[in-house]
């Protein structure tokens, strides 16, 4: 029996709580005795989430034994938290076998000194703050979640579900995690090193219409001629002017943007289709499987075939929810 304790406080983000809770509850429903889930606030009093939802905790923090997995959600309540909460985390966090945060819950762990010397992430909007306020933490702003020893941190909101599914997979196996993912109608395909943003969201949208049209063209034609010269002609600019304007308005060079779009498209095809590696490499503009392999290894640390084996599981049969009583 692994106890999972979810810490509650006023102005918590409700989905940071309920997303992981549903994952662990789903695992317990399918494997009775696998998890015991508890929620607790400082005094055991109900808390009001940032969206106005009221959650009634099971316990006061002082009354719960040290858990196997201690999960700290984020939300507006992480700004200027009650010092008693930070003190409790500092005292009890090291006793948990796993420390987990969702979104800005990482800030609470950092303020308790529990992320010092660890690699961690949080919501993209707060990564700079986390790095600035806690220089002993190695902040990685890109992944949707990071696992470093006993400490696991995730980015904004829904990534807490991804991380919880990864923990269930570690505890109970991939098939159980897949069943839960399908029941919740989410994908068990987002690896921790997946970027918080798609290529289109990671870059700013250009202000000038010709450059916006070029961004759209790149996304719709990853296998086309996406050289600077070709894209500049489409924008009716000289190559030099186009490259400078594109970087100024999007914060990314044309080549970098094209690389991200092609990699993202290749990943989707590997995950969602049975197309061959050679066919995908042509469709995404790599030209050869070797060129695509180099791009995958450089960015993701695994070759396309290995990526497909890890993130395109065999289909499962229909889910029949087990009775809860």
UniProtKB/TrEMBL annotation:
Residue ranges of domain HTH araC/xylS-type in the record: 212-310
SUPFAM superfamilies, per the entry: Class I glutamine amidotransferase-like, Homeodomain-like
InterPro entries: Class_I_gatase-like (IPR029062), DJ-1/PfpI (IPR002818), Homeodomain-like_sf (IPR009057), HTH_AraC (IPR018060), INH-QAR (IPR052158)
Alphabetically ordered keywords of this record: Transcription, Transcription regulation
SMART domains, alphabetized: HTH_ARAC
Pfam families found in the cross-reference section: DJ-1_PfpI, HTH_18
Membrane-spanning parts: none
Name of the protein: GlxA family transcriptional regulator
Organism: Streptomyces lutosisoli
